[in-house]
Design a protein that fits this description.
Elements lengths: L3 H10 L5 E4 L1 H14 L3 E6 L6 H10 L2 E4 L2 H9 L7 E3 L6 H9 L4 E4 L2 H10 L4 E5 L7 E3 L9 H12 L4 E6 L4 E3 L4 H18 L6 E3 L15 H16 L5 E4 L3 H4 L3 E11 L8 E5 L19 E3 L6 E7 L8 E11 L7 E5 L20 E4 L1
Helix pairs in contact: 2-3, 2-9, 5-6, 6-7, 7-8, 8-9
Cofactor: pyridoxal 5'-phosphate
Protein name: ornithine decarboxylase
GO molecular function: ornithine decarboxylase activity
Length: 377
């Protein structure tokens, strides 16, 4: 939602062009909610969700660790005040020279999902801890993940045994149940798989200690989502069922759930038109679209809450599109978006819950449009 602080900022500063405004108070509240819900799990904030230095500094001050996908993100986390032992290199696709540099910087926790990645780490970061990512079905997620990351559980067992024999520490297992996961029980299935991997390797004399529970914790868009506390209760129950009294070390990687609801994009209506005199549906064009930061509207997977200065009156369905000369730059057409009939060219619109995966998805200068401006307050 749009906080009073964000409203005041927009009213006083009147920033030109589309912009994202993030309220740090909301980020702080979300962090505290995660620590209460899963007090025995370490939080590794997914830097890719929003790497703004102000956000990283706040989270570092609060005690967060960081899940990073690149050397640049590692350097950002270090600059924000995080020690290297609070950083995980969580991308399973890494150049060997980047692994070596991360090792030089003190990083000792790496993700893998193949024998080949283990070999790179054994050469460039000997003695480091590795966790192997296993595939999950992503059922229940609004933004399911593909097969790009992870391997079959049977292969994960062999990858971790290979790591153990290659001079690195086979620490454990990771998984991701799908982004914007609304099913609190999704972790149950993944933890059952993780427990099987633990038991099989224990029989081979290899003791695993870590389960990376991944991300997937949702932001409220147009539909209600379960509370963070309900996720914590469900995850703890599943851990207890599958690991008994010998609970492993656990970490979580919230990204969207940490910052999504903290941000609002201010945008402007550039054009309202119809494709024929008989066309019952208006086309509403904004000064931001898929290439300006709203890439997650792809396939209309994420439907953001939209607020206008004319809310409260009659509404009618609209096709919502961005400003670029690319026919793919349409946000909502398959399921038109209801907007006020009184909407006019020049009206400002607020797109809520846009704190995650917007500035980082925005193009540099497609069609000459400037990258999405961001403010952290």
């Amino acid at each position: 939602m749009t906080t009073d602080r964000i409203r005041s900022f927009l009213a006083e500063r009147r920033p030109e062009g589309p912009c994202l405004v993030v309220d740090l108070d909301v980020v702080r509240e979300n962090y505290n909610a995660f620590t209460r819900a899963l007090p025995d799990s370490r939080i590794f904030y997914a830097v890719k969700a929003n790497p703004a230095p102000e956000i990283l500094s706040l989270l570092a001050e609060l005690g967060s660790s960081f899940d990073t996908a690149s050397l640049t993100e590692i350097e950002l986390a270090l600059a924000a005040g995080a020690a290297a032992d609070r950083i995980s290199y969580g991308n399973t696709i890494k150049k060997e020279r980047d692994i070596a540099r991360a090792y030089e910087l003190g990083v000792r926790l790496f993700a893998v999902d193949s024998f080949e990645e283990v070999d790179k780490i054994a050469r460039a970061a000997p003695g480091s801890r590795v966790f192997c990512r296993v595939l999950t079905d992503g059922e229940g997620a609004e933004w399911p993940l593909s097969r790009k990351f992870g391997c079959a559980p049977e292969m994960a067992i062999e990858v971790l045994e290979h790591a153990h024999r290659s001079g690195v520490v086979a620490a454990g297992v990771s998984f991701h149940v799908g982004s914007q996961q609304r099913d609190t029980g999704a972790w149950e299935r993944a933890l059952a798989t993780a427990a099987t991997v633990f038991r099989t390797l224990a029989e081979r004399g290899i003791t695993l200690t870590l389960v990376n529970l991944g991300g997937g914790f949702p932001t409220r868009y147009l539909r209600d989502v379960p509370t963070v506390a309900s996720y914590g209760e469900s995850i703890f129950d599943a851990l207890s069922r599958h690991f008994g009294n010998r609970l492993p070390e656990t970490i979580i990687e919230p990204g969207r759930g940490m910052v999504g609801g903290a941000g609002v994009i201010k945008t402007e209506v550039v054009l309202i038109a119809r494709k024929s005199a008989e066309d019952p549906v208006r086309w509403v064009y904004l000064d931001i679209g898929k290439f300006g930061g709203l890439a997650e509207t792809m396939d209309e997977a994420i439907r953001y809450p939209i607020r206008t200065q004319r809310d409260g009156g009659e509404v009618a369905p609209c096709i919502l599109a961005g400003p670029t000369c690319d026919s793919a730059d349409v946000l909502y057409e398959r399921e038109p978006y209801p907007l006020p009939t009184g909407l006019e060219i020049g009206d400002e619109i607020l797109i809520e819950a846009t704190g995650a995966y917007t500035t980082t998805y925005a193009s540099v200068a497609f069609n000459g449009f400037a990258p999405l401006q961001a403010y952290v307050i």
